[in-house]
Structures are given as structure tokens and as C-alpha cells.
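From the shared-data thread, chain only:
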Amino acid sequence: MTGTSQSHNRAITPLIIALLFSLVGCHHTPVVEVEDKSDKGLSERLITANKYIASSEQTQIDGYVSRRGWNCATLPCGARLLVQKTGTGALIKNDDHVVVRYTLSTLNDKTLYADRTDTLVVGRHNATVALDEALLRLRHGGEAQIISPSEAGYGVAGDGDRIPSRTVLVYQLKVE
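Structure, as C-alpha cells:
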């Protein structure tokens, strides 16, 4: 290289570097618009789906009760209660401590828990809502069948052991 081209290259090199820095320094990150994840339509679709599931479970319960010819009371939570034996004890009230023996199964007669015994405080929802509501209509010594929709039972989560998600439950129980 000649002396003139070398000095020309030396003069251009800082210019190129300065130009690169200015381009990098001026680099602008574009604004990215984030889509709003609180889609109101999603909420409405979930509500509609839950209503459909609840309606479907009530239809299944209606069929189960009808096939057996049971004349059940419908509880506020949507569960059905068939009192098989009235019992001779006092009517159960909120805050009563009761011992309940029961077998818990699904609508297709799969036994989830057999001959289980629990001591419950009525009205404290330490059992399922359906069981709590049914106990308030029974007497000590009474026997009953309770058919509970999943929302009044263990719901979407199940019990973490034997009861799967969204399971309609059938209690065969005796209050001691």
C-alpha cells in the first residue's frame, strides 16, 4: 500500500467506527403491543362451559334416580337425598358432632371408599357441601343415599386420592 492510501484508510477507519456506534446507539427497540390476556370472551366461555357441565351432571343424576325409581328430595346445592331409614334420635343441627359411616361410589357403581367412618361437625363444611346439607335433614340413627354433583362434592380438584376431578358421588350412609 502506498502512504497516501494508508493515511486515507486510517482516516476512514475511525469514521466507519463512529458511524457504526451511531447506528448502534440510535438503534430503537420497537414498541411491542401486548395482547390483553384478560379476555372477557374467555371468561364468558368458561362460565358457559361450567353451566353445561353442571347441567350434564344433573341429567346424569336424574337418570340414575329414575332408573332406581327413587323419590328423592333435591337439596339447595343440587344434591339428591333419599332417606331410607328415619332414625330415632334427635334431628341433626348445625354444630352437632356426628359419626357417619358410609360407602362412597360413582354413578357407574365404582366404589371409591368402602365402609369409611368420619366424625364431622355439621355446618362447618369439613365434609362436602352435599353431605353437610343432607345431614341437616337427618336424625341420629338415620340412613340415606345422597347423590352429589361434583360442584357440591370435591369439584374440579377431586380429593387428591381416590376421587377424580368432576365426579358425581353417591353416598350410602348411616348416622350413628
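DSSP finds three helices and six strands in the chain.
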